[in-house]
Amino acid sequence: MPIILFQTTSIERLGSDLSANPLRELQSNRFQNLTSLETLLLYDNELSVIRGDDLIGLTALRNLQLNRNRITVVDNFAFRDLVSLVNLDMRSNVLTSF
């Protein structure tokens, strides 16, 4: 059964803490309407791939924590919309392609 991350954009201008969950993948375009989201915590999950359309729309995102997952691949252009990004934590993954 897929995990639904958001039903509404009411978390805009806030942060979203999705850490320490059994998330294995992000749904494509799930964040596209969260253009004011500044912090996204996805550490301590089971993510293995960050696809090119997983983070679309997060233009205000300043802090993205993807540490302590199982990420092996980050697709080209996966971070293309993250124009405000200041902090990216990818520690403790097993990256083979970035």
Note down, in words, how this protein is organized.
It is globular, with a radius of gyration of 12 Å. By secondary structure, the protein is mostly beta strands. It has no helices and six strands. Strands 1-2-4-6 form a four-stranded parallel beta sheet, with no helix packed on it. Strands 3-5 form a two-stranded parallel ribbon.
The radius of gyration over CA amounts to 12 Å
- H/E series, N to C? EEEEEE
Number of strands: 6
* Largest sheet entry: 4 strands, parallel
Enumerate how many helices there are, as a single number.
0
Could you name the key traits of this structure?
mainly beta, disordered N terminus, 98 residues, two-stranded parallel sheet, single chain, 0% helix
Blueprint (SSEs and pairs):
Layout: E1 15-17, E2 39-41, E3 49-50, E4 63-65, E5 73-74, E6 87-89
Parallel strand pairs: 1-2, 2-4, 3-5, 4-6
Task: Quickly describe the structure.
The protein contains no helices and six strands.
